[in-house]
Every structure is written in structure tokens, then in C-alpha cells.
Amino acid sequence: MQILQSGINSVKLGLKSLILATSLSSTYVMAGGIDGIWKATFQVANEETLPVVIHIDQENGDWTGVLDSPSQGKYGMEMSTLEIRSNSIAFEVEDLHIKYEGAYNNDVDLIFGTLTQRKSLPLNFRRAADGTSDTPENRPQTPKLPFPYAVEEVSFKNKTANITLSGTLTKPTSTVKATAVLISGSGPQDRDETLFGHKPFAVIADYLTRQGYAVLRYDDRGIGESTGDFFTATSADFASDTSAAVDYLNSRSDLPKGKVGLIGHSEGGMIAPIVASNREDIAFAILLAGPGVKIPQLLVDQWYKDRKFNGLDKQKLKKLRELDKEIFSLISQLEEKETISGEIHQLLLKSARLEGNQDDELEAEVEQLKRQYSTPWFRYFLKFNPEPYLEQTKAPLLALNGSLDFQVNAKMNLNNMHRVLSRTGHPDFQTFELEQMNHLFQIANKGSSSEYAEIEESFSPKALKIMSSWLNERFGLNP
Length: 479
Description:
The protein has about 475 residues and is α+β, with helices and mostly antiparallel strands. It has helices spanning about 15-20, 200-210, 235-250, 270-275, 295-310, 315-330, 340-355, 360-375, 375-380, 385-390, 410-425, 460-475, and strands at about 35-45, 50-60, 60-70, 75-80, 80-85, 90-95, 100-105, 110-115, 120, 125, 150-160, 165-170, 180-185, 215-220, 260-265, 280-290, 395-400, 430-435. Helices cover about 30% and strands about 25% of the residues.
């Protein structure tokens, strides 16, 4: 699920990233506009990944830009054309025969677009850490050719939403034991759930496919090669996308019937029970850092820990926690389109002042928060209680959390999940707290979001082994 701050520590990626997922956000700094230094990771034909950095500057109303390719030792290549209008950006680098068209989203401080070099591919830019062009990251787990399994680019329809979702299906060349749908965390995610050069969904898909499981991972609606509008969607809409993925897999004659399951990370671990509770044909559900308590309780705990990482003193932490409880309680009572009241506005001002915002920044900060708190996604999210969906989930269920996960506290969420599933007499569930792992299931030191980019590990092999062993106990003997 989503909501955080990076160490990195420079950019507000927006509320939807802070709460449960893999995206990061800071409650302290406003997003900065399209000028600055931006970084993306480009996947070339041989599956090698190359970092791309662009520098966008504005002076006296004129825009200039250059592009770096650090791994190739090429820096400062001038953009032969650069056009920026409102939130759109288009540029060309003649020397590399590259064209790019994209759009800047202020809420998440990301540039979404398409790069064309012989063929068109989705390429999304994040603002570089501390405004600098950082060095290429080492991500040793990212899968590389050759693969001992089939890789198929697929598309499928969500007929209800009238959109097309695109993704990658990996399939063993031998008998398929079962099929998994990967469900991403909060914030705009591509099919690999790419963050800071990490591609955890590619790592999971590669590992499980080598173990005999087919795996589908897909771009969120409106992201990458999928159509639709990401920023007007709620978790319920994303659940309908997942359900469409299950329908698509069930329609294929080359995959085993009745053996399609769900693996959801963060907000995806909230969406999986939504789908599983409404369908009789879900074969299994694996929740990776999924919520087990009501969302306001989760957020209050998450924000407390995030601020603690950032050095706020105990007195301010205590006051802010109480303010969060009051603010979320009041907002949760609003209808989807109901305006935030003056009472909530004043509480937000008080909170922003305690956070350390300067007086001349307070109103702007509060207005930004009010816009975020008024989105359909957040209004739905804040009212969400996972218990009824867990109660109605009959499929075998595995829930994993890292002991250092500050976004989705392991003990608080796993304990309540265990209580709910035990109370309802669920016949087949297990919960595990994994030592020294953070929200991304990396072996970490403290668990803070600032470590996400610093750690080379993309997804713990221990967590992968637990997942595959659990699946093999249920599908390994009788494929």
C-alpha cells in the first residue's frame, strides 16, 4: 500500500505513494514542477537496463535540456528540440535518434511518457535524489536472458471499465502447477513494480516461473502500455482490473483450470482479499505487507514512525499522532465529494506547523493536503476495513510482513489478520513475520524508506523461498 518519505528525502511524491506502497512521499516538501533533474531506467532489447538522466532548466521563460547515459559514459547530450506546455513535455536527442513525449503529474511528482527509438516503450521519470545525477544502481537480482521459460507480452480487457491492460506472462515450458496474478502497491506502478531501479515483480515472476508456476504481471491502468485513467481510480477499480486478469487467465487453454491465485504487495495485499472474497474460483492468496487493520489505524502508526525516522521530538510526535487520529476520523465521515470543513482545515494547519513548515508555506501545504484528501482514491481508502473481506476469503491464504516494515506494521497487522481468520474458522492460512525485512522485503538495517534505494537486494530470497514452499505444499504434488 502506500505513503512514505525517501532519503532521497527531497520530493513529495504525493499521498497515494506514502501510505502503503512502494512509491515514496514526504510530508515535508512540496513537489517542485517540471524543471530539475530526472532519472529513469530504460530496458533495452537484450533485457539489460540502462539509467537515463535528463536535466531540465528554465531561465527567463526559455527551456533547455540535456540527457545523460551514465552507463555508456555519455553526459550533457543536448536536446535538439524541447517543448514544455503546462504539464506536458516533448523532446528529441538527434544524436541518439531518441524522441520522448510525456506528462508531469504534480500530485506524485513523476513524469509519465513514452520513449521512441526504433520502437516505442513506456518510460517514467522520477526526480533524482537531492537534485543530483546519481550513479547507476546495482540490482543483481533483476532477471536477465536467457530465460528457461516462455515470455509472452499479453493484453486483456476490463470490459466493465472499457480499458485494456497490458502485461507480461511468464510460463514454464513443462507442466504448469498453478498461475499467479501479481497485484502492485499504491501509486502508479508498471508491471515490474519498478522503484529506484528495483524490479521486485520481475524478480518474483522469474523465481516462481522457474519453480513451475505461470505468472502474470501487468501495468496499472493508465500506466505504461495499459489504457484508462489511473488518477481517478479507487482501490475498488483496481480490484476490477485484477478480476479481469483472472478472467483472462481462465480463458486460456494452456493454463490449468481452477488454479489461478493472487499475490498482492502493499495495497495489492488489500486488493487480493477484495477479489478473493467476491469470487469462488481463486485458488490461493498471498498477501505481502497487506493491511490487517482499519486504514486510519494503519496510517496513524505509519506516519508516527515516518516522522520518528525524520527526527521529530517525542512531544511533537505525540501531538501529531493525536491530530492524525482526529483528522482521519473527521475525513472518514465525509462522502466522496463532500468538501473538507473549516474544522479540518484548522487541524491541518496545526499539524503542518508542528511538522516544521514555515509560516509562509502553511496555507500552500494545507491546500495540497486537502486536494489529496479529497481524491476518490483516498476517500475510499480511508474508509477501508480489511476484516469483512478477510472473513469472506475461502482460498488458502499466506500473509508475510517484514519486522522492520514501518508502513504496514508486522505485529499489528498480522496479529489482527490471524485473529480474524481464526475467528471465522478459515481452514488454511498462515502468517509469518520475517526478521530484518522492510516494506519491500529487503534485508534492512532500520527499515526507513531512505534505505530502499541504497540496498542492492530487490526482494529477499528467503521470502521467495517461503512463498514457493507454501505453494508447492498445495500445488506441487498434483500439477
